[in-house]
Amino acid sequence: MRQADEGRYDDARQTLESAAEGLRKLAPNSSRAAELIEEAERLDVHTLAMTGPAYSSTVRKRMSNESWRRSRGRRRKCLSFSTIKLSELRAER
Protein backbone atom coordinates (compact mmCIF):
# COMPACT_ATOMS: atom_id res chain seq x y z
CA MET A 1 0.00 0.00 0.00
CA ARG A 2 2.86 2.33 0.74
CA GLN A 3 4.01 2.23 -2.89
CA ALA A 4 0.50 2.99 -4.14
CA ASP A 5 0.13 5.77 -1.57
CA GLU A 6 3.25 7.32 -3.09
CA GLY A 7 1.78 7.03 -6.59
CA ARG A 8 4.16 4.22 -7.56
CA TYR A 9 1.42 1.99 -8.95
CA ASP A 10 3.69 -0.02 -11.27
CA ASP A 11 5.97 -0.87 -8.35
CA ALA A 12 2.97 -1.80 -6.21
CA ARG A 13 1.58 -4.07 -8.95
CA GLN A 14 4.97 -5.71 -9.42
CA THR A 15 5.33 -6.33 -5.67
CA LEU A 16 1.87 -7.93 -5.46
CA GLU A 17 2.38 -10.00 -8.62
CA SER A 18 5.72 -11.28 -7.31
CA ALA A 19 4.19 -12.22 -3.95
CA ALA A 20 1.30 -14.04 -5.65
CA GLU A 21 3.72 -15.91 -7.90
CA GLY A 22 5.80 -16.93 -4.89
CA LEU A 23 2.73 -18.31 -3.12
CA ARG A 24 1.73 -20.29 -6.20
CA LYS A 25 5.21 -21.82 -6.39
CA LEU A 26 5.04 -22.88 -2.73
CA ALA A 27 1.52 -24.27 -2.91
CA PRO A 28 2.17 -27.64 -4.61
CA ASN A 29 4.54 -28.73 -1.84
CA SER A 30 2.44 -27.45 1.05
CA SER A 31 -0.21 -29.10 3.18
CA ARG A 32 -1.93 -25.71 3.11
CA ALA A 33 -1.93 -25.44 -0.69
CA ALA A 34 -5.55 -24.32 -0.94
CA GLU A 35 -4.94 -21.51 1.53
CA LEU A 36 -1.84 -20.35 -0.36
CA ILE A 37 -3.72 -20.34 -3.67
CA GLU A 38 -6.58 -18.41 -2.07
CA GLU A 39 -4.13 -15.80 -0.80
CA ALA A 40 -2.50 -15.56 -4.25
CA GLU A 41 -5.92 -14.95 -5.78
CA ARG A 42 -6.59 -12.25 -3.20
CA LEU A 43 -3.32 -10.59 -4.19
CA ASP A 44 -4.40 -10.77 -7.84
CA VAL A 45 -7.50 -8.77 -6.93
CA HIS A 46 -5.37 -6.21 -5.12
CA THR A 47 -3.12 -5.97 -8.16
CA LEU A 48 -6.07 -4.84 -10.25
CA ALA A 49 -6.62 -1.94 -7.85
CA MET A 50 -3.08 -0.62 -8.28
CA THR A 51 -3.81 2.15 -10.77
CA GLY A 52 -4.38 5.83 -10.18
CA PRO A 53 -8.10 5.80 -10.99
CA ALA A 54 -8.84 2.52 -9.18
CA TYR A 55 -6.77 3.12 -6.04
CA SER A 56 -8.91 5.23 -3.77
CA SER A 57 -9.19 5.86 -0.07
CA THR A 58 -12.03 3.32 0.02
CA VAL A 59 -9.92 0.62 -1.63
CA ARG A 60 -7.00 1.45 0.65
CA LYS A 61 -9.20 1.19 3.73
CA ARG A 62 -10.56 -2.20 2.63
CA MET A 63 -7.06 -3.49 1.98
CA SER A 64 -5.88 -2.18 5.34
CA ASN A 65 -8.83 -3.74 7.15
CA GLU A 66 -8.24 -7.06 5.44
CA SER A 67 -4.59 -7.03 6.42
CA TRP A 68 -5.50 -6.26 10.02
CA ARG A 69 -8.09 -9.05 10.14
CA ARG A 70 -5.82 -11.61 8.51
CA SER A 71 -2.95 -10.79 10.85
CA ARG A 72 -5.26 -11.67 13.73
CA GLY A 73 -6.50 -14.90 12.20
CA ARG A 74 -9.91 -13.56 11.22
CA ARG A 75 -10.58 -14.93 7.78
CA ARG A 76 -14.30 -14.23 7.60
CA LYS A 77 -15.34 -11.11 5.75
CA CYS A 78 -11.88 -10.24 4.55
CA LEU A 79 -11.69 -7.93 1.59
CA SER A 80 -14.20 -9.23 -0.85
CA PHE A 81 -14.39 -6.48 -3.44
CA SER A 82 -17.96 -7.64 -3.82
CA THR A 83 -18.98 -4.03 -4.03
CA ILE A 84 -16.24 -3.31 -6.55
CA LYS A 85 -16.60 -5.41 -9.65
CA LEU A 86 -13.38 -6.84 -11.05
CA SER A 87 -14.48 -5.83 -14.52
CA GLU A 88 -14.67 -2.20 -13.35
CA LEU A 89 -11.14 -2.37 -11.98
CA ARG A 90 -9.85 -3.94 -15.19
CA ALA A 91 -11.61 -1.29 -17.26
CA GLU A 92 -9.94 1.47 -15.27
CA ARG A 93 -6.47 0.03 -15.91
Would you write up a description of this structure?
It is a single chain. Helix 2 packs antiparallel against helix 3. By secondary structure, the protein is mainly α. It has one domain. It is built from five helices and no strands. The longest helix is centred in the N-terminal third of the chain and has 18 residues.
E-strand count: 0
Q: Characterize the main sheet.
A: none
Multimeric status of the protein = single chain
**What best-fitting shape do the alpha-carbon axes yield?**
globular
- Uncertain segments of ≥5 residues (pLDDT<50)? 76-88
- What is the count of distinct domains? 1
Give the count of helical stretches.
Answer: 5
Helix fraction bin = 55-70%
Gyration radius (Cα, Å) is: 13 Å
The averaged pLDDT comes out at 80
Structural class computed from helices and strand pairing: mainly alpha
Strand coverage percent: under 5%
Helix and strand element order: HHHHH
Cα(first) to Cα(last) distance is 17 Å
What attributes does this structure have?
5 helices; mainly alpha; single chain; globular; 93 residues
Give the helices and strands, then pairings:
Elements: H1 2-5, H2 9-26, H3 33-48, H4 57-71, H5 86-92
Helix pairs in contact: 2-3
Give a short summary of the structure.
About 65% of the residues lie in helices and about 0% in strands. By secondary structure, the protein is mainly alpha-helical.
